[in-house]
Amino acid sequence: MVKGFFMVMSGMVVINIQQCLLSRDREKIPSSEAILKEFLQRAEEEHREHKDVKYYADRAGLTPKYFAKVILKASGRHPLNLIREYIIADARTMLKSGNYGVEQICNILHFSSRAQFNKYFKDATGISPVRYAKS
User: Fold this and answer.
1) What 8-state DSSP symbol labels residue 29?
2) Phi and psi dihedrals of 39, rounded to 5?
3) Could you tell me the pLDDT band of residue 1, with boundaries at 50, 70 and 90?
4) Burial of 16 (0-12, 13-18, 19+ CB in 10 A)
5) Is 1 in a helix, a strand, or coil?
């Protein structure tokens, strides 16, 4: 009888340990919304230096493909498009302020050349940075 009681108790202990481990594992896995929130915060702060999805995926501890899938599911938008929005909003603000030339903005936003920045900006907005600044 003692042996049977011990087997039942040890079985309950094993079940309790498994439940604790499972609940801890669930706590460790961030939700899609938490991943999105962290990504948006990081992208807002670091978009000038980091324009690629792989950087943000690495910070989240996910593969770029899975990271993009999670962000797309949570926001309805691909992370590359969200990063681009931060970059373009930043560029627009600097261009409209009149305090920065296009070359300075290229440097601040870490583009390798003015031509690369011009193409990036025009693809996103439909007009060149110089025309945008004058409008």
Assistant:
1) S
2) -60, -50
3) low
4) exposed
5) coil
